[in-house]
Amino acid sequence: MLEALRNALKLPDLRRRIFFTILILVIFRMAANIPVPGVDRQALSAFFASATATSQLAGLLDLLSGGAVSNFSVLAAGVYPY
Question: What is the pTM of this model?
Fold first, then answer.
């Protein structure tokens, strides 16, 4: 596997694509932790605690969003529906 990674990094076009993909993933994870201003985080966490206790849909939605929904991050507010 390491040999395949070395061979992939030798090709300039493939190396650029791999690094771009890693950069996009890092930016997404950082943006998933930026909260929306004006949201009461304690009320939101209480809502998710009660919602996940009664229904697993909220937990699944939070899992699929990478935690962006329970943090009510900028990504959950604007990009997630698309």
Answer: 0.61
